Amino acid sequence: MNYGGVISAVSVSHTNATVDDIEAACRDSERALVEELLAHEGVDEAFAIQTCNRAEAYVVTADAAVGRRALSNFAPDVRDGAVVEMDHEESIRHLMRVAAGLESLVVGEDQILGQLKTAMDEARAVGGVGEMLDDTLTKAIHVGERARTETAINEGVVSLGSAAVRLAEGTLDLDGTTALVVGAGEMGTLAARALDTTSVGTILVANRTVPHAEHVASEITTDASAVALDAVPAATAEADLVITATGSPDYVLDAETLRASGETLVIDLAQPRDVDPEASDVDGVRFHDIDTLEAVTAETRARRQAAAEDVRAMIDDEFERLLDAYKRKRADDAISAMYESAEDVKQRELDTAMTKLEAQGELTDEQRQTVAALADALVGQLLSAPTKSLREAAAEDDWTTIQTAMQLFDPEFGGDLPDLPSGAEPREGKPKDVPEDADIPKRVLEQLSDD
């Protein structure tokens, strides 16, 4: 296999896109998107990840232009500026940042690691993950795991949504209870995800746009369902815990509705408020607002930002290691082709020599072994210097030398290497003249003469 190709990617995420943009970019499933990408001519590998906060696609092609074409129709219904395109090195760095939690709504959150692993399995199931993406994704997941074990990137409560759930756990026995999250935006999504890590029995997600609520409900493993905003009073009557986080200018819950709901813990994360302040006077209702939780999150938010600096340095180090591994593998492809070609020639000439020697008199086993060892030694010594040169060429980003080696020694090589990595320049000059009696395929000789 020729370990080549370049990665191209596109991303629609919370960083510069709305929930509507992200939803418009998503397909029915990650597997379906990978199959769609693989159907494009020239796409060798493909990967996709879709969550509440991002929809991203990655392809490996021999040429970056082919990759860009394959991704050009990724999000046709998304507004200008919401789609970010990434080249080879940007794609690799971005995957590492995603895995480490640096691209998450809540810096360092843990859920993204599991989502990446699941997406990798989905892509692998339909043949999307080859050697290039396997190395890249494996490295990204390794970085994510290192970030969480070697730094404080995921320690403490940093979002109001997770702080609200932490408060609820300290106030209620959540085992088997029903929780209502009102709002499917950033804060509501984080609250739903945090509830998903508890022993809550049922999660209801209410939102003005029901499909958004359905999307959040589909992302969590707890029994969950979506309801319309006008069904909130009825849902509140069923719930033991209510967390509100909408952008409504008016109250979503009033004291009268809560009075009819019985024993309920209500946590209002919205600004302006979602819950009428008079709710605090209703019997059976325990009420907390955003002021209660701000102090809880401030300290750990600062701690995670400090840890993020360590994670960035870690990514720089792992990124360079991965690029070096790519270079070694590309050189190894050329070296392997060179040795295979030499082995074919050696074996053919050895058979000819043995036949001639046998005609002059029968050879002993020891004599046969001596001749074979001589042939092996000649091949090894002759290819020692080219092997060293090819490894040095890869280290120096001299892909022209590697391309020439592939043309000379690999009969199946198509003659084009992938796009040069960022910053790489081809080496000046042409291959040396080849003796007319050299044992080289006619196709390669013709190509060299054309040069």
Q: Report how far apart the termini are.
A: 26 Å
User: What strand line-up does the widest sheet have?
Assistant: 7-6-5-8-9-10
Q: What about the largest sheet?
A: 6 strands, parallel
Number of helices: 15
Write a concise synopsis of the structure shown.
The chain contains 15 helices and ten strands. It has 451 residues and is of the alpha/beta class. α12 runs antiparallel to α13 and α12 packs across α14 (399-409).
Describe this structure in words.
The strands form two sheets. The protein has a six-stranded parallel sheet with strand order 7-6-5-8-9-10, sandwiched between helices. A four-stranded antiparallel sheet has the order 2-3-1-4. Helix 4 packs parallel to helix 6, helix 6 packs across helix 12 and helix 12 packs antiparallel against helix 13. It starts with 5 loop residues before the first strand and ends with a helix. The chain folds into three domains: 145 residues, 2-Layer Sandwich (Beta Polymerase, domain 2); 129 residues, Rossmann fold, CATH 3.40.50; 126 residues, no CATH class. The chain is α/β, with parallel strands linked by helices and 451 residues long. Strand 5, helix 8 and strand 6 form a beta-alpha-beta unit.
